[in-house]
Design a protein that fits this description.
Elements lengths: L1 H5 L4 H21 L3 H5 L8 H27 L3 H28 L9 H11 L3 H29 L3 H22 L19 H13 L1
């Protein structure tokens, strides 16, 4: 038995083994994807809606960061000061993220707030004390509500993986900020836009169709 294990292979056996090894190498090379196949998968190009989301989040930071800094100096309420601090810290993080994502996707971002945002900043700059606190809470809460709906719609329908991940992150920040602003007790909910009218329920639609058919 030991002699069999130590026996040197004959020349024919070596040739046969070499043939098997060569065949195995050729098979592996044929099965493995080449460099082109490994790099051929490309991300879905961002749509105009995807780009609009990045732009809106960027512009939110462009006015909320300086406004949050201003609130820490000008607000009367300690709670408003604290909310301003959180807005600054979070938007500095979110701004880095949106710039990185936009760079990878080739989206050009704005460098200044919108005309409305600049107007809100000017309005707050004229206020002090309790009036400042009230306007700060309501202007920022209304603004967050608008971008919150944009994020939700894009997140629900985007085909781009980068945008999907970014929308999830941005959604968490915006929801947190809305909650923080509401925690001041200064938000006038009656001044916020009405929620959209819900579509009729499927059962109600079916009942209506049935009544029309029976008439």
């Amino acid at each position: 038995m030991h002699r069999l294990l130590r026996r040197k292979p004959a020349a024919g056996e070596l040739l046969l083994l070499g043939g098997f090894a060569l065949a195995a190498v050729v098979t592996v090379l044929l099965v493995m994807p080449g460099p082109a196949a490994l790099t051929s998968v490309s991300p879905v190009a961002p749509t105009t809606s995807d780009q609009d989301l990045l732009i809106k989040v960027r512009q939110a930071g462009l006015w909320e960061i300086p406004t949050g800094q201003q609130a820490q100096q000008r607000a009367l309420s300690a709670r408003v000061k604290d909310v301003g601090k959180h807005l600054v810290e979070d938007h500095l993080k979110l701004d880095k993220t949106v710039i990185a994502v936009a760079s990878r996707l080739g989206v050009v971002l704005p460098s200044q707030p919108t005309a409305d945002q600049q107007r809100w900043m000017a309005q707050l700059s004229t206020k002090t004390g309790a009036a400042y606190d009230r306007d700060f809470a309501n202007l920022l809460r209304a603004a967050h509500g608008k971008v919150f709906s944009v994020i939700a719609l894009v997140r629900a329908g985007t085909r781009n993986d980068e945008i999907r991940k970014f929308a999830t992150t941005a959604n968490a920040f915006v929801l947190k900020h809305m909650t923080l602003l509401e925690s001041t007790g200064l938000v006038d909910y009656d001044a916020l836009p009405e929620p959209p009218t819900p579509s009729p329920a499927p059962v109600a639609l079916a009942a209506a169709d049935s009544r029309r058919e029976n008439q």
